[in-house]
Amino acid sequence: AREALAQAQKMETVGQLTGGVAHDFNNLLMAVLGSLELLRKRLPDDPKATRLLDNAVQGAQRGAALTQRMLAFARRQELKPEVVDLPDLVRGMTDLLQRSIGPSVRIETCFPLGLPRVLVDAHQCELALLNLTVNARDAMPEGGTITIAGREASSEDVGSLPEGRYVCLSVTDTGTGMDAETLARAQEPFFTTKGVGKGTGLGLPMVQGLAAQSRGRLLLRSGLGEGTTAEMWLPMAEASSHCEEALSLPVQPQAS
Ligand code: ADP
């Protein structure tokens, strides 16, 4: 519990820092972009100069896009937990997921009939799934299969969870996997192995934050060459100690 608190405090600090820095950077970059556009108007008709200017504009735009993502991360969104049927939620977004990752990787889903519903913010849960799916795709440059699955689980199956019944929502890939050091650091804010401009290192912290705020947990299982499974453990709506709260919450509308 002390570790979880330390992690939460770290996230809070990182969030505040990120928010401040991103905000200032965003303003600076907007000024840079504005000046560059003014410069363009005064520039002689020199193709080389125009190309250099285009490079500068592109760089500043990429920087602005990154600061936008950092701002979105820092803005601690209020979660709106509701009773969610995970198979429905996943079914409703498989097209979107498939489009986001391209055709080289196939998505399969595997949910048992009658899987209990969970208490989670549906929209944030979709974003988390998108993050996990994109990570899975990135780990499979040669293509492969992503399996999104759900199963009933109990806190006894894994340490450091409040006692109770859970649903484990998992995203499994057949990709490169992680070595022990990467696995140990993967959930740290800003930790990325994807290189500048590609990774932000904010995907897994977002998923971890959502799971923790939902009174669940993010668990990663991985080995080099063995692929990766990311598990979001979410408390069952029906069996949680917040049962009465849960009953008064709106049920997520059925995705057609
Ligand atoms: P980002 O995707 O921007 O790098 P994340 O926080 O989502 O940030 O992930 C952090 C790091 O964890 C990744 O850079 C990668 O090294 C590792 N990682 C995450 N998911 C996977 C996966 N499915 N397979 C292999 N490595 C992964």
TrEMBL record:
Coiled coil: none annotated. Residues 20-238 form the Histidine kinase domain. This is histidine kinase. The gene is rcsC_23. The chain holds residues 382 to 637 of 770 of the full protein.
